């Protein structure tokens, strides 16, 4: 398959690039950017760190810089919202690791794991509860294989001959006792042949009066005929248990399982089976399903619930499925099921005293279910601690509010105690995440202090000075919060895991502007002890200045953005440089939330090759993610004022860059990905602020996403003026600045199908505008292959050289 590049040079007399001598010239072949940018593509990535549940060992997964184009899946199919690698019977290809090292937390010693295949493609790993073993899934020899690592010996071996099915799961999970895994095996027998083209015949679809159906824009609805049979085969999995010796025991029979989870004591299995008929226009995750309780051998104990096909319109963020939902196991009990049920039938328009109810039922399942809590919002999280402690969080978007409660599962009649109450958008008031610890069976529960009187929370420490992560102690009896530790400049440092039960010893991840993230142990105020020493692959980053800008929009809303200046650059001495603004706007319900400062000036610039920060290496300044809040008016929706607020935010950012002496107005470009690309096209259509634009994987015609997009829940027919005004395709005749568009040919993101870029390019081409469209074979919504990444950087580099030159 070729890489197609389209070039259109319109009536404006602009320079023609070296490789194209005429309008409409077509190029083929992958290109590489200049050496400084290619070095970023080729640089090694830092290892991924996965901590063991007993906090003794950290698995460090070394990752290649980028997969090669030939390693991208070639035999994948896309059906009903799923991407299936048919060769491996797996879901979308993960980001692989290829080497594994084990880090001892006590002394910082690292050991390589031996016995793995050369350049292994490790997809997923999981420690056993006792931390003696690590189970791995490897993509090897055309299948997903299960391997086992002996942690003490640091040696790996293949555990199973039969391949795993990872279409809908990771393929395995540890069970209590640390000797046995619950695995999902690929179906046996011949794989179905690719679906043949159906015999030509009339295609009929019918809509029933009074029965609205969700017409979600899934990119790959299930076609009729043999494709349904193919999908059914790949969704089949055979559950089994396998012990660390490799002994395999089948559980039940192969079936189309959506999910399967063992109870904490290993005696039961919670399973969810997909039910026919299949629904072509609805994601697999919304198909009819039956939730069942099995014993450990796969024998049915009881049917818990039958969920009907969920094809109703769900335009309200507070809407949920009717009936019991979100079944799970209590982490602090041997075998206790919990689930939620909406008191309003799932419809927020229905008046109800209690919106959500939390239920529990314990083995041996003879007693009726107990009500543990009733709330006036939707329960979105329950953290279990003990019979006397669980923490429940509820959200109600209509009020924009989130509340956190302490409940006592052993005393269901006891009134919940309010712990935190804040606006959903309020980062400054966010208490953070509760710290947890692992039980002997591997389940994670709330970590309480030695005396049981307190919980611990790790928060971002968001404030007007930026993020300064902290560790807080929360006293359960009176709600008093005490800060035990807070990150100090010039570092950004956050708590990952506590090593004791009183907040005196914990592991952090620390970074600064010129130091990449590394792991440290902190203890009783002593200097931190380094566990890892990952070096910076980019020495030149030490001379890059990072500033958090604070400025104001014309309507008074406070804005901020992170400015990266080229190595050694000083505005007063060197004068203005070319600037790239990389954008992604957000909706807010209040001006105060929109004005909150995000991020920190002390963070390391993790220069992923696709990040706009790579261009700092070439002498450009980059304003990354400047605030572009779209704030809802009183009683209205945020998008009702989208264009006015978007352009005001862009004007404020440009004015600030010029005021600082970093930029001159004729040498500022704007870029973005996905919703950011949509923003780029709109700003080029409705302002004259930018010399050029770069839009990647975007959507430009909102009539192609008529059932809602981003956080817009109204349909095209409910808000036609909003859809028309926000669609840059409808205003393509106003786009005067040159626009580079890049799109993956295999983009399956529902709102950003490749035709979005193709149609906008055709419109610009027809009007003689300056535009360029690049489509990348086999690439999804985010570009992955090294060759494609290099080509994207080559395109960006040439575009900015061409239109931001002095």
UniProtKB/TrEMBL annotation:
Q: What sequence ranges are listed for the domain Peptidase S9 prolyl oligopeptidase catalytic?
A: 652-804
Q: Which UniProt keywords apply?
A: Hydrolase, Signal
The record's listing under Pfam families reads: Peptidase_S9 (PF00326)
State the signal peptide span.
Answer: 1-22
Q: Which domain of life is it from?
A: Bacteria
Q: Which GO terms describe its molecular function?
A: serine-type endopeptidase activity
Q: Name one GO biological process term.
A: proteolysis
| Regions crossing the membrane | none
**Name recorded for this polypeptide:** S9 family peptidase
Organism for this UniProt entry = Massilia violaceinigra
């Amino acid at each position: 398959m070729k890489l197609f590049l389209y070039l259109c040079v319109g009536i404006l007399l602009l320079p023609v690039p070296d490789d194209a001598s005429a309008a409409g010239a077509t190029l083929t072949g992958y290109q590489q950017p200049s050496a400084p940018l290619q070095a970023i593509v080729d640089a090694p990535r830092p290892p991924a760190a996965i901590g063991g549940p007993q906090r003794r060992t950290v698995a460090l997964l070394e990752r290649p810089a980028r997969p090669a184009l030939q390693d991208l899946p070639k035999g994948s199919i896309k059906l009903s919202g799923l991407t299936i690698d048919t060769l491996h019977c797996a879901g979308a290809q993960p980001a692989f690791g290829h080497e594994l090292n084990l880090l001892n937390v006590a002394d910082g010693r690292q050991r390589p794991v031996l016995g793995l295949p050369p350049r292994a493609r490790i997809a997923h790993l999981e420690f056993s509860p006792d931390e003696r073993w690590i189970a791995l899934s490897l993509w090897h020899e055309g299948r997903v294989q299960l391997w086992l690592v002996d942690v003490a010996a640091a040696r790996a071996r293949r555990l199973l001959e039969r391949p795993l099915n990872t279409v809908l799961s990771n393929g395995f999970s540890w069970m209590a006792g640390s000797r046995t895994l619950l695995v999902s095996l690929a179906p046996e027998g011949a794989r179905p042949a690719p679906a043949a083209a159906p015999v030509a015949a009339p295609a009929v679809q019918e809509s029933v009066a009074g029965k609205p159906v969700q017409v979600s824009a899934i990119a790959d609805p299930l076609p009729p005929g043999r494709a349904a049979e193919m999908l059914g085969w790949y969704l089949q999995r055979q559950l089994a248990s396998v012990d660390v010796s490799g002994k395999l025991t089948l559980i039940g029979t192969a079936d189309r399982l959506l999910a399967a989870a063992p109870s904490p004591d290993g005696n039961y299995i919670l399973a969810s089976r997909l039910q026919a008929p299949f629904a072509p226009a609805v994601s697999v995750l919304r198909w009819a399903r039956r939730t069942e309780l099995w014993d450990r051998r796969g024998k049915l104990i009881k049917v818990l619930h039958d969920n009907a096909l969920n094809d109703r319109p769900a335009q309200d963020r507070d809407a949920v499925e009717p009936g019991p939902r979100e079944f799970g196991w209590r982490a602090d009990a041997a075998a206790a099921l919990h689930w939620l049920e909406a008191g309003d039938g799932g419809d927020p328009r229905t008046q109800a005293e209690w919106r959500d109810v939390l239920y529990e039922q314990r083995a041996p399942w003879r007693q009726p279910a107990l009500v543990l809590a009733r709330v006036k919002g939707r329960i979105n999280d329950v953290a279990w601690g003990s019979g006397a402690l669980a923490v429940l969080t509820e959200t109600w978007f209509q009020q924009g509010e989130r509340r956190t409660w302490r409940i006592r599962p052993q005393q269901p009649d006891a009134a919940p105690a309010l712990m935190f109450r804040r606006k959903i958008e309020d980062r400054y008031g966010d208490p953070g995440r509760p710290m947890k610890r692992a039980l002997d069976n591997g389940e994670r529960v709330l970590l309480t202090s030695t005396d049981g009187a307190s919980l611990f929370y790790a928060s971002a420490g968001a404030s007007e000075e930026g993020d300064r992560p902290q560790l807080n102690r929360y006293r359960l009896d009176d709600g008093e919060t005490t800060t035990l530790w807070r990150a100090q400049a010039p570092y950004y440092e956050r708590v990952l895991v506590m090593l004791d039960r009183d907040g005196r010893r914990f592991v952090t991840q620390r970074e600064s502007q010129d130091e990449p993230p590394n792991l440290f142990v902190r203890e009783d105020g002593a200097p931190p002890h380094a566990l890892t020493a990952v070096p910076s692959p980019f020495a030149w980053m030490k001379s890059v200045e990072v500033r958090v800008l604070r400025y104001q929009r014309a309507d008074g809303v406070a804005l901020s953005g992170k400015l990266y200046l080229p190595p050694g650059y000083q505005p007063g001495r060197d004068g203005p440089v070319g600037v790239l603004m990389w954008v992604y706007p957000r909706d807010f319900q209040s001006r105060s939330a929109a004005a909150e400062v995000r991020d920190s000036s002390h963070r390391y610039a993790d220069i992923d090759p696709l990040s706009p920060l790579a261009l700092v290496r070439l002498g450009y300044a980059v304003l990354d993610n400047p605030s572009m809040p779209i704030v809802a008016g009183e009683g209205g929706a945020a998008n009702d004022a989208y264009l006015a607020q978007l352009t005001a935010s862009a004007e404020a950012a440009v004015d600030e860059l010029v005021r600082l002496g970093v930029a001159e107005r004729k040498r500022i470009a704007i870029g973005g990905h996905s919703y950011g690309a949509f923003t780029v096209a709109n700003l080029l259509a409705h302002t004259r602020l930018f010399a050029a634009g770069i839009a990647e994987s975007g959507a430009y015609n909102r009539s192609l996403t008529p059932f809602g997009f981003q956080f817009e829940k109204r349909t095209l027919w409910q808000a036609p003026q909003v859809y028309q005004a926000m669609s840059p395709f409808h205003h393509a005749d106003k786009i005067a600045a040159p626009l580079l568009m890049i799109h993956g040919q295999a983009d399956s993101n529902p709102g950003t199908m490749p035709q979005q870029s193709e149609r906008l390019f055709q419109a610009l081409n027809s009007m003689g505008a300056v535009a360029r469209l690049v489509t990348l074979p086999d690439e999804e919504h985010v570009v992955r292959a090294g060759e494609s990444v290099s080509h994207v950087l080559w395109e960006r580099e040439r575009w900015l050289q061409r239109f931001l030159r002095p």
